[in-house]
Amino acid sequence: MTCPVCGTVAVPGARFCHNCGAALPAAATLPAAERRVVTVLFGDLSDFTSWSEDLDPERVGAVTDRVSRRRIMMVASCTAGSIQLVLAALLWTDNLVLWHIYALVALSQVAGSFQRIAFQSAVPQLVPKRYLGHAMGITQLSSGFAMLLMPVFAAGLLAAIELKGILLIDVASYLVAVLTLAVVRFPDLLGWRPRERLLVAIANGLRYSWQHRGFRLMLGYFALGNIFLAPALVLTTPLVLSFGTATQVAQVALAEACGAVAGGVLMSLWGGPRRRRMVGVLVGNLGTAVGCVLVGLDASVTMVCVGIFWLAMAMTTAQSIYATIVQVKVPQRFHGRVFSLNQTISWSTLPIGFALLAPAATSLFEPMLAPGGSLAGSVGAVIGTGPGRGIGFAYVCFGLALVLITLGGFAIRMLRRFDVEVPDSLPDDLIGAQERQRRLAERAAAQEREPVAA
User: How many Cα neighbours within 13 Å face the side chain of 245?
Assistant: First the structure.
């Protein structure tokens, strides 16, 4: 029996195709003589879900894969809201000092990490697989609208109610988030959660990600690319201020937000490629590199806006497609750990770009592209000379480095064909049901082997 949409051989007893998520016709289910077994199977799965609530207490660490994602987001939102409330109280009582801000912001970022990873892991629980790309586009769209509207609201609120009032509104927003999560029910698709200690759960997640060469290549590719992407994300303001005004910095920020919104709209409508998704990620990263080069080509607000718009749109699209790959290829019981590991490794190189590459490139190229500098007659003839042109040339170099890294990704077959050669994961509720049936069968066989008392 095959799926009428994609032609994939259906899993016996499945109601939906495990490849594209399309509903299977009645003919793809079990024969009529076995339908009674299917009914019992789902009844056992429901019983198993309630029984699984008595498993060992979940602890910090691989929390996302051991606790309800909805509960994690609620706790994380409560924690972040409480931190903002403490910050507001310190500000209102005139007791706020700088180290308070450092400590509270660090704690807020911890809560944000839990919330972000739990949210990414919860999307497949709410959305059929064939719509995951659209769903990730919508999440990116919401982030883009936040970038677009935040400066406007921030300026207006700061003038009207100052920072003290803004913090109270922030606390109220977290309260709204918690209440929204309280009324939204997440279907429990994790039919089987193994009994494993915290360290074992973490080790299993690391082993799952690291044992596949394709995952290792992806992590290395993103970690290397982020070294050159990081400075491009922080040098925009000094680049624009070298020839423009603070108003023009705001215009560039608006263009970046519009690019993020455009990428979210594109993914919401398109959903990303159905096949060869990794090629889509690589093409999106090439677009990011092109945007980076455009930013540095000319000392004009128009060119910088065009480049930053294209950079943000391409980056948003690539990130959405990549998240879809993880959600489709990795079983849900590993989503939290895999997203955490990917974030940790790929983001580990960002400080290199922020703290080392950005200031080093600026201090190196600025004198070279000053009038009469060593590059004034060559590179300067193309991108101009004067203040800020060294930063512009740094953008061109970062973009070209990203192009070379991405072309290298295209050249590696395992990376380019990752989502083709790695099969989609089976639904976790089906795996849980199979594990439950296996254990029941073992228990029944053991009881049959026991001697009957006279």
Answer: 1
Sign of CA dihedral 322, 327, 328, 331: positive
The C-alpha atoms of residue 312 and residue 170 are separated, in whole angstroms, by 26
Q: And the tokens for 22? A: 């399309």
Residue 52 has pLDDT above 60, yes or no: no
- DSSP, collapsed to helix, strand or coil, labels residue 16 as strand
Q: What are phi and psi of 367, to 5 degrees?
A: -65, -30
The letter for the amino acid at 311 is L
**Degrees (nearest 5) of the Cα angle 236, 239, 245?**
100
pLDDT digits (tens, 9 = 90+) for 126-168: 888 889 899 999 988 888 888 888 877 887 888 888 888 999 9
Hey, what are 316's tokens? Answer: 């948003």
Report yes or no: 78 and 174 within 8 Å, Cβ to Cβ.
yes
Radius of gyration of the chain (CA): 26
Q: What is the DSSP string of 305-374?
A: HHHHHHHHHHHHHHHHHHHHHHHHHS-GGGHHHHHHHHHHHHHTTHHIIIIIIHHHHHHHHHHHTSTT-T
Q: What is the mean pLDDT of the chain?
A: 82
Beta bridge partners of 2: 9
Tokens representing 41 are: 């199977």
State the virtual CA torsion across 134, 70, 51, 194 in degrees, nearest 10. 70
pLDDT at 347: 83
Q: Dump strand ranges (E) for 172-313.
A: none
Tokens of 55: 């498993």
CA 17 – CA 130 distance, rounded (Å): 10
